[in-house]
Design brief:
The protein contains 3 helices and 6 strands; from the N terminus they run E-E-E-E-E-E-H-H-H. By secondary structure, it is an alpha+beta fold. The chain has a 4-stranded antiparallel β-sheet with strand order 1-4-3-6. It starts with a strand and ends in a 5-residue tail after the last helix. The C terminus is likely disordered.
Length: about 110
């Protein structure tokens, strides 16, 4: 499961293309509607989703950029403040390579 930089409730389930899966707390590129977005992996699982899962297009990090402690803190913040987890992760600049990189990504989205 992963959260993208979108204002939806999420998280969303995507499938792995191969055995080189991303780490929890790492970034991936995924198709989302007609765009490609960067998301943060929040959980790896083998449960079948209710709809067909789309594949992860690229793994950006082989090591987590958010520690287990930061991921736990983000989940707590999202629950306590009733905020989408993707927005909470977005507020952590290290999740997307710094706030300047985050702003650039939002203006350079490419259609899927």
């Amino acid at each position: 499961m992963l959260c993208c930089r979108c204002r939806s409730i999420g998280p969303f389930t995507y499938k792995l293309k191969d055995d080189n899966g991303p780490p929890v707390g790492g970034r991936v590129v995924v198709p989302f509607r007609n765009e490609k977005l960067i998301g943060v992996v929040t959980r790896l699982h083998d449960e079948a989703p209710p709809v067909e899962a789309r594949p992860i297009e690229a793994v950006l990090d082989q090591e987590p950029i958010l520690s287990a402690e930061l991921m736990e803190l983000a989940a707590w913040i999202a629950q306590y403040y009733l905020a989408p987890l993707g927005e909470v992760l977005r507020s952590m600049p290290s999740a997307y390579g710094g706030s300047a990189a985050l702003d650039q990504l939002s203006h350079q989205r490419k259609p899927a």
